């Protein structure tokens, strides 16, 4: 397990899911090289799809921009070690 502590930057996710997201990130960082952000994100997405139903999206990296619509109560953005983590469940956007 990593020694670093995750810092929540923004969220509307229930605390239990936030804890799961941070634990999943920590586990992925133990399994994959810190530079393999795609595998880290895939690991987290698959875990959330299995536990909370399909439709989850995950972005991992040290620098990225994004714009998205998410289902209420499914968004968390946090930092752990040198990486930023964004996980959310997609939502339909009606014009």
UniProtKB/TrEMBL annotation:
UniProt keyword terms in alphabetical order: Cytoplasm, Cytoskeleton, Dynein, Microtubule, Motor protein
Top-rank taxon: Eukaryota
GO CC aspect terms: cytoplasmic dynein complex; microtubule
GO molecular function, one term: dynein intermediate chain binding
Gene3D superfamilies on file: Protein Inhibitor Of Neuronal Nitric Oxide Synthase
Chief place of localization: cytoplasm
Localisation: Cytoplasm, Cytoskeleton
Signal sequence, renumbered to the chain: none
Biological processes, Gene Ontology terms: microtubule-based process
Keyword Cytoplasm: yes
Pfam families: Dynein_light (PF01221)
Family the UniProt entry places it in: Belongs to the dynein light chain family.
Name the record gives this protein: Dynein light chain
Species assigned in the record: Sphenostylis stenocarpa
Lineage: Eukaryota, Viridiplantae, Streptophyta, Embryophyta, Tracheophyta
